[in-house]
Amino acid sequence: MNRSLFALSIALGTSLALATPADTLVYQISSATASVEPAQAVVTYDVLPVQQMYEGLYLNNFGKYEPLLATRFTQSSDGKVTTFTLRKNVKFHDGSVMTCTDAEYSLRRVLLVGTETSLASQVRSNLLNLTGFTPEVKKTYTFAKLSDLVKCNAAGQLVLTLDRNVPSLLDSITQSYIVPMKAAVAGGDWSGTAKDFDAFIGKDVSNSALAQKPDGTGAYQFVARDPSRFVLKGFEGYWGGVPAFKNVIIQKVDSDTARVLALQKGDADIAIVPDRDTLAKLKGVPGVTVYENLPTHDLTGVVLFNQNIKDDKLLPAGQLAENNIPVNFFSDVHVRRAFAALFDTKTYLRDGLHGYGLPRHTTLPTNSWAEVKTLNPPAYNLKTAEVEFKQAFGGKLWTTGFTVPLGTYAGLGIADVIAGIFKQNIEALNPKFHAPISTFELSAANARLLGGKSPFGALTWGGADPDTNLRGLYSSTGILAPATNINDPKLEAMLNQARDAVGQAARKPLYRSLMTYLNQQVYAIPLPQPAIFAATASSLKGYENYSKTNLFRMLSK
Fold it and tell me: Which end of the chain has the smaller Cβ count within 10 Å, N or C?
């Protein structure tokens, strides 16, 4: 570690008295970074450093797919065979040169390792339609099959051969990061051969060698980390040119007030601002730039309902009590419809988004080509909520009552607004209805959600293609399946039919039928599409471009 970076790190760890140097970016976040294993990371502050250190073959730049470690691709007429021409003279952080063998190994690894809640699992679900590595799947999912799926040809190109056309292929390719095979294997990772193939199927690699000592091709390389700080430095061998910042420090600061103060004093270049009320107080502050209306793309805010909650503190399925809920509470469509009718969208738009939001028709992003603007989800109506609750669980829920736990996230003011709306309306509807609120750190809340322990929760989801978005939210094979436990054969068939049709013209009416069905079933409710807000040091340049890619190399001073 160089001397100047070490001195800055110590200063930030002990006080917030020094302004950041011109060659250093300090980004203050509200939650700790956990695993930076590129095949595993899905949580926001895990993905953030991963995106700086690793790269895929293509980049999703605000919905436009741009060449990254590949320079071009071609596809067969049926869309099943995709051939990528790789960029030459690309170096990993360890100094080795990227070859097709590295790309082949990396994509095979993504299709092999990772738990059901990993990024790799999401890629597998999209590309291979895997329902998880069940014993039945393992019988046919062999090293030979994986080798046929991904291989280098004689020209040094990477060839991906699938059994069907996948419209959202590039979406998955952008999230399939290239790693150095030699370094990974030396660190005890999968050998890339058949000998340990079975041992790595679906393996949790959160603590892999790549997680402990990241080694990618990105503009920034790993230096050090501790529970409150993740330190990177500019990679001098980066194929795209040396980035503007020599040093980057991603710093966890729990206190909203402390982050805002650091930004005002010049001790942070970017700081996570919890809500628009706080943002408004930063307007006009010398040295601070406020962004109120940054566009969103491929993102959708939703409240998801869990059909089978994995929490042993809850009651058995079907059992009711005023002081608790059954694990299958949200499996009753009347409960879901009632909760949708309890949510006051106008209040959320006013108090949570301060008016900076767009109305939603479905749970697709507002800019999606498949969005159906003539549809409307269930609307806020307390009388409707009462009618639905009186039908739930054979008419017993209304008289018995319930207690549903609500969760908010530390440092995320919007979550407080959502919980507050539900609590107020739930408890006003019936004196036997209760909704206590607990606050979790974001990483802990995500772990609960992805572990299936949350009855329901709000989150932001993405995906350029509607299949990526909707499959992740609703499919029993999607990455969010452990959080929702939806098991709806009709829904699965509709998802597959819409995905497998070739061309937007053929797919769009199928998505209309699908979205109509989803609005009826209310497996989730859409939140108004927010405009992104942020606050940075005025000396920071390029934040608008950064907000489209999350790449620090877009930034400078």
Answer: N
E strands, 309-369, where?
357-358
CA distances from 11 to 17, 23, 201, 263 (A): 8, 16, 44, 16
For residue 415, give the 3-state DSSP assignment: helix
Q: What is the location of CATH 3.40.190.10 in the chain? A: 3-32+227-295+532-554
What burial letters (b/e) apply to 532-548, b meaning 16+ CB within 10 Å? ebbbbbeebebbeebbb
Positive/negative CA dihedral, 375, 307, 380, 414: negative
CA dihedral 423, 427, 428, 432 (to 10 degrees): 170
**The two three-digit tokens of residue 386, written as one number:** 């009462």
Q: Which of 478, 466, 472, 473 is nearest to 509 (CA)?
A: 466
CATH C-level class of 299-530: alpha beta
Record the tokens describing residue 217, joined without a space: 């091709």
Alpha carbon 310 to its chain centroid, in Å, reads: 21
Spatial distance between the Cα atoms of 201 and 190, rounded to a whole number of angstroms: 10
* Rounded-to-integer distance, Cα 150 and Cα 238, Å: 26
Query: Cβ of 275: how many Cβ atoms within 10 Å?
Result: 20
Using alpha carbons, list the distances in angstroms from residue 451 to 116, 302, 493: 10, 18, 26
- On whether the CB atoms of residues 300 and 364 are closer than 8 A, the answer is yes
The Cα 491–Cα 189 span in angstroms is 37
CATH assignment, 57-180: 3.90.76.10
The span from the CA of 61 to the CA of 78, in Å, is 26
Most confident of 61-75, 149-163, 470-484: 149-163
Alpha carbons 242 and 525: distance in angstroms, whole number: 44
Classify 165 as helix, strand or coil: coil
List where CATH 3.90.76.10 sits in the chain.
57-180
Q: Assign 3-class secondary structure to 220-250.
A: EEEEEEECCEEEEEECCCCCCCCCCCCEEEE
Tokens 């699965």, residue located:
492
- Predicted pLDDT at 17: 40
Structure tokens at 488: 């709806």
* pLDDT score of 302: 93
If DSSP codes are grouped into helix, strand and coil, which group holds residue 102?
helix
Cα(534)–Cα(289) distance, rounded to whole angstroms? 8
For residue 288, give the DSSP letter: E
Nearest to 183, CA basis, from 217, 224, 147:
217
> Measured at the alpha carbon of residue 462, what is the angle toward residues 376 and 43, in degrees to the nearest 5?
130
Q: Which of 343, 321, 317 is nearest to 330 (CA)?
A: 317
Looking at the chain, the domain(s) classified CATH 3.10.105.10 span 299-530
How do residues 417-461 score in pLDDT, each as one tens digit?
Answer: 999 999 999 999 999 999 999 988 877 888 888 899 999 988 888
Mean pLDDT, the chain, rounded, equals 92
Q: How far is CA 452 from CA 36, 215, 308, 327, 449, in A?
A: 22, 32, 8, 10, 5
Q: In sequence order, which ranges of 225-332 are alpha helices (DSSP H)?
A: 256-265, 276-282
As a dihedral over the C-alpha atoms of residue 87, residue 55, residue 472, residue 147, rounded to 10 degrees, the angle is 50
